Amino acid sequence: MADTAQLQKICTQVRRDIVRMVHAVNSGHPGGSLGCTEYMVALYFGIMKHHPDKWNMDGTGEDIFFLSNGHISPVFYSVLARSGYFPVSELSTFRKLNSRLQGHPTTHEHLPGVRIASGSLGQGMSVAIGAALAKKLNKDQSIVYSLHGDGELQEGQIWEAAMFAAGNKVDNYIATIDYNGRQIDGDVDKVLPLGDLRAKFLAFGWEVLETEQGNDMAAVIEGLNKAKALTGKGKPVIIIMKTEMGAGIDFMMGSHKWHGVAPNDEQLAQSLTQLITGTEEDY
Amino acid sequence: MKKYTFTEKKDTRSGFGAGLSELGKKNPNVVALCADLTGSLKMDAFQKEFPERFVQVGIAEANMIGIAAGLTIGGKIPFTGTFANFSTGRVYDQIRQSVAYSGKNVKICASHAGLTLGEDGATHQILEDIGLMKMLPGMVVINPCDYNQTKAATMAIADYKGPVYLRFGRPAVPNFTPADQTFEIGKAVHLIHGHDVSIFATGHLVWKAIQAAEILAEKGINADVINIHTIKPLDEGAVLESLSRTRCVVTAEEHQMHGGLGDSIAQLLARNNPYPQEYVAVNDSFGESGTPDELLRKYGLETENIVEAALKVFNRKS
C-alpha cells in the first residue's frame, strides 16, 4: 500500500480529473465526487485486494465495490482509470456520445471496473448484498464494499436492504455513507432529516463506525481498517463518513450549490491552482 | 383437425415449482429468492431441498430484485418469485436499472398473473405486466400455457444467459402439452393447422383457443392455432407464415389490450403486411373479485369470445 502522502497526491490528481471532466461537458456532479475522493482513493489504492489487469465481472477472489450514488461517477471513473482498469485518456470521453463513460455508471458499455448500473438511487445496497451472498456461496473470503449518499438514505429500498443484511448476517460487507449533509435541494436536514443515523443502523443490527474526518486520508484509512476488522463476525458493517461536498476547492465547499453544476473556464482555472501535485499527469 | 386432450388440470405455478426443484439438482448455480410467498409460488420443495441456495427476503420486492442482480456477480443464476404485480409494476425501476440495463442474468418468475387469481381482486390482478416487461430492452417475456410447458420453460431459461420474465398463474388449467417437451425460447408452437383464420394465443388462453377452433370447425371455419409462449422475442416467421395463408387474425391473452401480445402482433403486421385483427383481451379496465371462470366470462376472455372474434375477423377480410 502506498503511504499517506502518496495517496494524497493521487487524490489531488483525481480532483484535477473531476473538475476537468465536468468542465469539458458543462455537466456532471463535482460536489460529491470531490467529497468522496479520499475514500475512493483509499479503497482502490490501499484497502481493496483487486486485480484491474485481470478484470472480470464475477470478481471471484477479489474485493469488489459498488457505487450506489452513481451521480458521483467522475471520481469513480478517475479512480478506476488511474488504478489501471482502462486508459486514463478515456476520461476525456466522459458524458460524450459513444462513450463508455456514461453520465451515470453502467455495465451496458462494458467499462472495466463497473459491475452494476447506478443513478436511480437506493438500489446499490441490495446489489452489494447479493454479491456478498454470492461470495459466501462460492466460499470466497473477500469483501464487498459500497458507497451511498446520505440523501440517498431517503429511499425506502435502502432500509429493506439494511434489515435484510443484519437479519441474514451478511458480514462480508462494508457499506459507507457519504455524510456530507447536502443534497440537490439543500441541506439534508431541511429536505428530509435522517435523524440519528448511528442509532438507526445500530437498531437495525449493524456494526456502526463513524469517520469524523472523511477528507483526511489517514482517518479514512483508519476507519476502513477498523471496518475490515469487524467483518466475519455476524454483522454487516457501516461507516458513517463525514465529508465536505466540494472538498479541495475552496469556493465549492460550504454549500450544496456544486452538487450538480460544472465550473466555467474561469472557475476551472481557479480550481486547478488549488490542486497542485508538482507532477501533474492530466489526461 | 388435430385433437387435444388432457387427463388432469394443474396449475402452472406448480409447473414452475417442479421445474425449479429439478433445476436445483441439475445446476448448482441456480438460487431462488422469494418475498414471503413461498407456498403460493410452489417454491417450498426447492427451499426444503436446497436451503443454502434459497433466500427468503421478506415482503421487500425491491430489495429482492437488487439482491438477485448482485447474485449474478459471482456466477449465480437467481430466480425471483412473487406475484406478477409485485414482480413487475412494484419494482419496475429496480428491474430496469439493476437487471435489464445492467444486463444481469436474473429470472423474474411471476405467479398469479392476470384475472384468474380470482377473489383477491384488482389490486393483485396485474394485466399490464407483459407490456411493462416487453418494453425493457433485452428482456425476454414468456407466458407458458400449462403445467408441463411452465416446467419446461422454467428449466430452459436457466440455460439462457440474460434477463427473463416468466409469467404463470394460479388456477388449475388443462395440462395438455407433452411432459417431455423441449422448450425453445422464441419458437412458437403450431397446434392446429387451418387456412381461414389465425388464432395466436398465450398463457391460459391457449387451451381456450383450441376449444374455439373446434367450435369454428363445426361452423366450417378452419382455424390456424399457434401458441405464442414467448411474446418477446416474437416468432415473427411463424406469425407471418400463418397470416400468409389465413389473412386475418385473432389474438387472445389474459392481459390488457394495450401493450400485450396483440399489440406485438399488430406492430409486426403493420411493418410487413397488415391484415384484419381482433383482440381477445381486457379492454382498458381493472379486474375485480370473483371466481376465475366468472372473471374470464365477464371480461370477455372465454372460448366463445374467441369464436366471436374469429367469425368477425373472418368476415372482415372478405
Report a brief summary of the structure.
The complex is a heterodimer of chains A (283) and B (318). Chain A is an alpha/beta fold and 283 residues long. Helix content of chain A is 39%, strand content 11%.
Description of the molecule:
With about 280 residues, chain A is of the alpha/beta class. Chain A has one domain: 3-Layer(aba) Sandwich (Rossmann fold), CATH 3.40.50.970. In chain A, about 40% of the residues lie in helices and about 10% in strands. Chain A is built from ten helices and seven strands. In chain A, strand 6 (about 205-210), helix 9 and strand 7 (about 235-240) form a beta-alpha-beta unit. A seven-stranded mixed beta sheet of chain B has the order 3-2-4-5-7-6-12, sandwiched between helices. A five-stranded mixed beta sheet of chain B has the order 9-11-10-13-14, with helices on both faces. Chain B folds into two domains: about 10-175, Rossmann fold (3-Layer(aba) Sandwich); about 190-315, Rossmann fold, CATH 3.40.50.920. Chain B is about 40% helix and about 20% strand. Chain B is of the alpha/beta class and about 325 residues long. The interface of A and B includes residues 58, 64, 120, 135 and 138 of A.
